[in-house]
Amino acid sequence: MPQLDKPKILVVNDDANSLFALTSLLAQWAEEEPYEVIAARSGEEALRQVLLHDFAVILLDVNMPGMDGFETAEAIHQRGRSANIPIIFITAFVADELDRLKAYQRGAADFLFTPVIPQILHAKISVFVALAVKNEELKKQARQLHQRTNDLIASNKRLLQEIEDRKMAERQNHAKDEFLAMLGHELRNPLSAISSAASLIGLPGVAQEGAARAKKIIQRQSQHLGRIVDDLLDLSRAMSGKILLNRVPLDLAALIANCLETYRATGRTSDYHVSMELEPGWVEGDVTRLEQIFSNLLDNALKYTPAGGSIDIVMEVEGDDIVLTVHDTGVGISAELLPHVFDVFVQGTSTLDRAQGGLGIGLALVRRLAELHGGSVEAESAGAGAGSTFAIRLPRIERITETKPETMDTTEQSKPTILLIEDNDDGREMMAMMLSCYGYEVQHAADGLQGIEVALSYRPDVALVDIGLPGIDGYEVARRLRANGDTSGIRLIALTGYGLAEDQRRVLEAGFDMHLVKPVDIESLMKAIGSLTNRKNSSAPAA
């Protein structure tokens, strides 16, 4: 236990001899008892000492010039910190009852008459010193108890936080397990349909109509698989801040109208009452990502609204913002789920046989893409069965005068020759066949070195080059073709499964003109080829 501070005794007397006698007497006992003696020659000096120190007891002479003992005692006890210091008055006169009453009213604890009897003084002093020591010990114990209480409170907070963190980790692990189960379910369904349709086409005696339906199933389910992969990749990029927005001024109302028209043309909204009220409004944004935001909101409404339900799409200008609202009359959102609908892997139902399907990442992607555009998204619902409303808020810009894009020459007479460098045999064969069916003259190679040899002999207009090639990769193929004067003019399109901004940068630095992310549908590929071969006077690469 640390050493306690010694109690202090204040002796106040205007007579130097009396003061010396008292302090000397007390000093002798102080060698055996734990206290310290301080002297004062006047009431004023006593008050100064009281301001500096805490005292166990004060020995105060009554008869002093200027401020007498009674006035000094009253001044000491008027101060909050010194109000409870016991005072023993020392006087040479026998005090009558009125004097004693006056002394006690001033806060006296006791009286001593001169000449002071040492044994009596020692006994009285010892009592007050012992009380001071005990009080100091109690104060120290109280401080220690307070510190222990604070330590326990802090430990309890840490324990509660650890418990909450553990529960959160368990919930996250459970969500990941459910997500993996859902992912397996969502992948197996289209893969099963594709496998069955492919087997049907190969059966002898299959009717032409059946084969055509099987081909449509393969195409539709392949697109569904592509959307699943795109959502996974986009969410990963969005959460890590690696999505690169290609911002342009655009009329958001026109974009929404075009998207909805595509849904109607494909029959995806035929079982619903869909209304649209769009106020023109311009934003600066990425066309593809804004379409993705609206598509995910509309898909969510279609997924959770029974056939025959209503979906209302409203866009209006509010000050400096544009607000896009998608309201449905579907299953609604419970109060427990509502705060978490934009979290990753969250769905209203977790059973694998649910009719809605999906990975539970669409709304999380909507929120992140809206934030990347400087906007926000909110969800509202009155509860289960009461429908739901999602509102996107984006910064508005002034209307930009539209300019018509240049038309591209995609006639049969201008079909360029194509070299396809791809190491996947099935992928290479299918892409070459598709391009040939659309009138392109195609030659292909299975690795980078063979591709360079074919390019030197064939001299194609466009080379489609996979990045992940055996031997030398696609980057090196591009560098060697650009370094050779005979092949430096070939338009180069990179085909890769990687779509981050860093991947685009590497592709363009290697000498490619364009970067396409697999899988690439034939229409997008032909559009890319046409855009390169029709820019006769342009040599700037495009991302």
From TrEMBL:
Domain Response regulatory: 8-129, 417-533
Pfam family, one: Response_reg
EC number: 2.7.13.3
Histidine kinase domain mapped to chain residues: 182-398
Keywords: Coiled coil, Phosphoprotein
First-level EC class: transferase
Keyword Hydrolase in record: no
Ranges in a coiled coil: 128-155
InterPro entries: CheY-like_superfamily, HATPase_C_sf, HATPase_dom, His_kinase_dom, HisK_dim/P_dom, HisK_dim/P_sf, Sig_transdc_His_kin-like_C, Sig_transdc_resp-reg_receiver
CDD domains: HATPase, HisKA, REC_2_DhkD-like
Catalytic activities: ATP + protein L-histidine = ADP + protein N-phospho-L-histidine
Keyword Phosphoprotein tagged: yes
Modified residues (4-aspartylphosphate): D61, D466
PANTHER family xref list: HYBRID SIGNAL TRANSDUCTION HISTIDINE KINASE C (PTHR43547:SF2), TWO-COMPONENT HISTIDINE KINASE (PTHR43547)
Name under which the protein is recorded: histidine kinase
Source organism of this protein record: Pseudoduganella chitinolytica
Lineage of the organism: Bacteria, Pseudomonadati, Pseudomonadota, Betaproteobacteria, Burkholderiales
